[in-house]
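Researcher: For the annotation table, I need structure tokens for VOC family protein. Please keep the output clean. Sequence:
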Amino acid sequence: MDRLITHLRHVDLAVPDYERQLAFYTDLWKLSPESSDAGIAFLAAEGSPEQYQVRLRADTEKRLDLIAFGAETAADVDALAEELRAQGVTLVSTPDKLQTPGGGYGFRFFDLEGRTIEVSSDVAVRAHRRVEEGESVPVKLSHVVINSPQPEALVAWYDRHLGFRLSDTLTSPHMGSMMWFLRCNPQHHSLAIARCPHVSLHHASFELRGIDEYMRGTGRLLRAGVEKVWGPGRHLAGNNTFSYFLDPLGNTVEYTTELERLDEDLWHPHLYDFTDPQVSDQWGTANPMSEFVATKSFNDPDRGVFVAPPV
């Protein structure tokens, strides 16, 4: 199929401890509260034209509300909705005007494992700015990684239905393939899928301006006593830097920079053995990849599958 998805827009989280989560993502993670209402906040990245890149919604239970992607035109949105319907994918809503900040035209559907996915076009561009040298604030949402108990089937689903292409795979001699990096544009990955006992969010990653800004942001979180899971280091797959932290509810969030851009016509996926220390961290500065690191990123089982968020 032709690829109708152009890029990642935002990730939406339901959170029980709403005020504490909001304080973390604004005061420490340095997202900007673009608009908010009672129990819901839309948080933007300073360098991004997207209206918001994280939505927080107060709820009694923690869950991943949805992942949103962009399409170029309303016609593409309609075409994708029609393709998905014809292929038996469950639509949560049909294409229509969106009521979220920036408006636009879009629809929602369930992926193979019941996550809610939104695709939209014609969302108004947010007044954004160039992030300056030394500013350790997110430029944009880089990518989202999800956990799956049937990752091979889920990778095939995103390829078949949404046109995502495989960039690289992480594997090991003992456990087999463990993570698949998928792209919807020349960026090495906008989505990745990790093997896990249950459906959940693995992590959401935010691009900083450069190495210095990435290290300053990492240091700010360390000084504030935020629990670090892994990093700082530089992965081989994607060639990007990484520092993983836990938000107050145990969701893993990452600061990164310099994620690789590919020549899609020439690229051939690699199979990387992550038991090689150079694969996990080219610099050798991060704590070793361990069961602790893996388990932290399993997150809590998401009990919101096949249940569309109320907003």
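Researcher: And a one-line annotation?
Model: Residues 46 and 139 are 6 Å apart (CA to CA).
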